[in-house]
Amino acid sequence: MSDLADRVACSTDNSIYQILPQAVIYPFDGDDLTLAVQVGQRGEFTSVVFLPRGGGTSTNGQSLGDGVVVDTSRHMRRIHDYDPETGLVRVEPGLVRDKLIDFLAPHGRFFAPHVSTTSRATIGGMVSNDSSGKGSVVYGKTSDHIHSIELVLLDGDVATFDAKRAVGDNDVTQAADRICRDVEKILAPHFNEIEQRFPKMKRGFTGYNLKEVRAGDGVLNLPKLLAGSEGTLGFIKSVTLKSEPIPAHTALAVLVYDSHDTGLRAVPDLLEARPHAIEFIDDKILGAALRSPFAEDVRQVLGITNEGGAFAAHFFEMSDEDEQELERRLVSLKEHLNSRIAPALRPIGIKILRSPDDIARVWEIRRACQGLLAGFDKNKRAVAFIEDCAVPPENLADFVTELEAVLEARNIPLGMYGHADVGCVHIRPLMNLTAEDERRQIRQISDVVFALTQKYGGLLWGEHGKGLRGEYSEQVIGSELVHVMRQIKTLFDPLNRMNPGKIARPIDDQNPILALDEVPMRGAFDAQIEPDLAAQYSNVLRCDGNGACFNQDAAQPFCPSYKITGDRRLSPKGRVSMLREWARARSTGEVASAHNIAEELNEVLETCLACKACAGAGCPAKVDIPEMKSQFLDWYHEDRKRPVADLLVANLERAAPLLDRIGGLVNTLQSTALVRWSMVRGFGLVDLPKLRHRRSFLNQLQKLNVQTMSAATLLEMRDAERAGTVVIVQDCFTSFYDADVVLAQVELVKRLGFTPVLLNYRAGGKPLHVRGMLGRFRQMAQQNAHDLAELSKAGFSLIGVDAATTLMYRHEYLETLPDCPDLGVQLLSEWLGAQDLPLLDGDISYTMIQHCTERSLEPQTSSQWQSVFERSGLSVNLVKAGCCGMSGLFGHEVRHQKMSRALYDENWRAVVEAEAEGGLVATGYSCRSQVKRLSGVQALHPAQILLSHLRNR
């Protein structure tokens, strides 16, 4: 693809750099890789260079360049073979690690290298960087788990290299044998030099691993050379991996320290207790976690409130096949801490976790470290360029102390986390790289930190590959071995067409290895955006390329349009990249370019479901694409005609009360073939919901003796009357299309001993915001916000009905009205969580799926709903599912039918159709509507369930 959006999506990774490729191709299988190489040998294409790309999460520009990106992550995700006897599994390079873990789990096995980006890191990328991550003190690196690699070579041959290939009498007409013979010849004169110069540490030299490629006399382990080669030697067609048995029993000790220095100095002694992993986080991350959606986990699971002076934590994990042996080792660990650790280095607190759920929550906090730092300073970003320094564990504390001093002298704060057991620290300086003087410091800091790693016997690149740091190789291993690396590169890629500028260049190539400060930086492009636009789209500039939106887990809300298409343009990161490019073109006066970019940008934003997952806990930068989309559409339609459907949507909320007066007629007409055809042809809408007859609704309210009041009338109440009054805030969708839910919520509040009052209906403006009609939305928001704020200030309890609409008051209103106060409209789960609930009798087990916006923006609501049902004596299973595919009117639009239905099939259908009608609970109006539309099942709201049991008491 040569579309700008495809190219822009692949112009960045998780590093500080930005390079626009010439094109992007998405091979469907290994044959397409061979075809790409063959085409590249023809005439005008012989100068094309290839840039293999997996998850795009590298921290040092590994997959960036101005050639042709070959992205295997979209289609090459297959698992080909699994041998239950040996545990060997053959996979394609685009397979994400978590998908492999899911496949292996029923067999009692797992793939050991555990990177924090496991939800989007591809196996090909892990091989190319020789990734390791948590647990490497026991399990080592990716290269330790490779049985064989199938590689597409630049001459079009396909060669399979296994971990133990004898050199000598093999058939030299075979590419693999020929290459092994030539590698042996290249290495043979330099064995002693390799042994002396290569660092002796767990996180050894990567790209190219000359030391470990020689498995023994006459035996080569070529996968050790290919792992860590960062796509510079050929295309990975498939990898056969070794899997490991899942440990039968695991426990985790949370060790709390009064400083990270104390904790790091204790590491060498802690290693004597034989951990499977020791991970650490510093005070900045602990503090950020206590201010984040992880706060409850930090307090409850880790037992840290910071009231006791906790400034660092170690997560000390142990595993064993024998439960009693594991318990013995835990006792031994406590004894070890008291007897073998110097008093000054002992933790100030220790908590042992045995529950798999608790342990999983701890590792979620650890995986979120980068994201927690992303929100630390709104004017600076936690940037990666000295990201993965590694030194022997006994030197780690001294190394960190000096490194902190280097950055402190430059007035640069930092956050730290990492793998204490192998001396690898993830250092994230907080910098503003739109400032030229701070960009200049990248070189200065890198040189100083490199010198520190040398001083302490380590490496600047200890885990995440070299990328654009290859220039330091000669200072580590000397010119003789750099020449050997160039010979290896020449053997595989003599014309320097595979990811040039990284690791090594062929012997006859005069182009130098890319210098880390001579490659375009993303901050330099962002600096071109004019201040007003930068302020308006500030969330866009916060994206650091972490790639959390590439998560393929169907149970997670983030990001539905990417998840179902695999199209990186349609991810938050892809959309952010185009928004940045559009804002830059507008700012620099490139009128024609800005116009063309705007058309492509409108296309990639059009499939955003406005689920707000990218504004919640899932996205480290909380880029909030729906908000950015709304602002863009507001600008875009200043001089472009809006679609006819926008006019219908814009007036939907205001028209609903009028249409409801003739609801019977409207519903009848809506059922006719002519009206359905007209809605499809004229407005592009299908399967529109039926109105709920308002008269029946009002009659039911009258029977309940519940009044409907205006805000002004409520404010006239005496103080004594206000105390027990609960105001139900209506929304268009439940009041006019699902009124039984409103009635249930009203009666539930009444039966719990309160006086419910229904606030007069007013349009909230959600459809206006989604369609980018911000002028009208702002007016509506101002009117509603004033009344809600006054009611809240007067002491009324306010409860919304639909989760997505209720959360609009906290997000879209605040984004549009900067001075808007907290309007105090609670979600039902929040209000119920603060009430004394009666114990109910129920013999039905309910399955609940929450609205994805609710889960994303207020993740604590999951535990709130669980608690509400459990305290009421009811059994509920909260199923984690992504977007149902409805998302307001998205699922009713003709152009979105394929995506809407595919999302439902992936996330919801199996759960819905496994439940008997009456046992399924869904908190969102959109979700219940989609369930009814596509499965013919009537899902209920939690209020309806609780009320039915209250009635039967």
Automatic annotation (TrEMBL):
It comes from Aliisedimentitalea scapharcae. This is FAD-binding and (Fe-S)-binding domain-containing protein. Residues 17-246 form the FAD-binding PCMH-type domain. Its cofactor is FAD. The keyword Oxidoreductase applies. Keywords: FAD, Flavoprotein, Oxidoreductase, Plasmid. Gene3D superfamilies: 3.30.465.10, 3.30.70.2740, Alpha-helical ferredoxin, Vanillyl-alcohol Oxidase, Chain A, domain 4. The lineage of its organism: Bacteria, Pseudomonadati, Pseudomonadota, Alphaproteobacteria, Rhodobacterales. InterPro entries: 4Fe4S_Fe-S-bd, FAD-bd_oxidored_4_C, FAD-bd_PCMH, FAD-bd_PCMH-like_sf, FAD-bd_PCMH_sub2, FAD-linked_Oxase-like_C, Helical_ferredxn, Oxid_FAD_bind_N. The keyword Oxidoreductase applies. Residues 597-631 form the 4Fe-4S ferredoxin-type domain. It comes from the Bacteria.
